[in-house]
Amino acid sequence: MWREIALAGAAAAVWMAWAVRGKSSKVFGPSIWRGPRSSRAIALTFDDGPSEATPALLDLLAELEVKATFFLCGAAVRRLPEVAREIACRGHEIGNHSDSHAIFALRSPGFIRREIVRAQNSIIEATGQRPVLFRAPFGVRWFGLERALIELELTGVMWTAMGGDWRLPPDAVARRLLARASNGAIFCLHDGRQLRPYPDISCTLDAVRLIVPELKRRGYELETVSRLLRAPAKG
Q1: How far, CA to CA in Å, does 75 sit from each of 48, 50, 79, 80, 131?
Q2: Helix axes 109-127, 81-89, angle to 10 degrees
Q3: What is the pLDDT of residues 74-131, one digit of tens each?
């Protein structure tokens, strides 16, 4: 009997881990993790900004003629409102990435709602853009998130592939993402390192220099998440 109980407990733990962080899980609300497979387009997304390093990434994206989606943290926006405004002025899409980048697991619905609302208000005040997309910190969803997203008219977004640019060298990040390139893919990179000031994102910049030209060579268009989701079928 104890063996059966242990196996049931292990199975429940595995299921809960998938429910909380599985990219296709809808247990805590609907979540997008890729766009239409009918359109040859991919979305680049960047989390944890804005940071002091974000302007260098904006310059690189302009050089590569790419628009991306930036999931911003409210606390970082309040610290660097001018950088947040620059993201918007450059024509990129802005999403909500919570206020303090706290893990939502085991938090109350009230805490989760406050995190999202405070970030939403800070982003609107700094940029004039009202985010319509939300990405949970660390991709962790929890009870109360769905209700908050419905109330705030936000769409949850996960990713097709995570670059691992905070821990891997640029060539490994590029190989990891390029191996997952497919119609409608959403790639996750970072222009910040949680809320740390003056982060070193040289790996991210070098990886983007490798990834974007190769994706274009393969015939992919680089879109924001919202445009990717609306992309018409090609051919």
Answers
A1: 10, 9, 6, 9, 15
A2: 70
A3: 999 999 999 999 999 999 999 999 999 999 999 999 999 999 999 999 999 999 999 9
Per-residue model confidence as pLDDT tens digits over 1-14: 656 555 455 666 67
Nearest-angstrom CA–CA distance, 94 and 117: 15
Question: Which residues does the annotation mark as catalytic?
Answer: 47, 190
Contact present, 97 and 48 (Cβ < 8 Å): yes
Q: Which amino acid is at 7?
A: L
> What count of Cα atoms within 13 Å lies in the side-chain half-sphere of residue 97?
30
Residue 136 to residue 158: CA distance in whole angstroms:
8
- Give the residue ranges of DSSP H helices in the chain: 2-21, 54-64, 74-79, 81-89, 109-127, 145-152, 170-178, 202-217, 225-230
Alpha carbon 140 to its chain's center: 12
The per-residue pLDDT for range 160-179, each reduced to its tens digit, is 999 999 999 999 999 999 99
Per-residue pLDDT, 201? 98
87 to 46, 54, 68, 125: CA distances (angstroms): 11, 8, 10, 14
Nearest to 188 by CA among 122, 136, 126, 119: 136
User: Would you give the distance in Å from CA 218 to the centre of its chain?
Assistant: 23
- Arch. (CATH architecture) of 2-230: Alpha-Beta Barrel (3.20)
Segments making up each domain of the chain, as ranges:
2-230
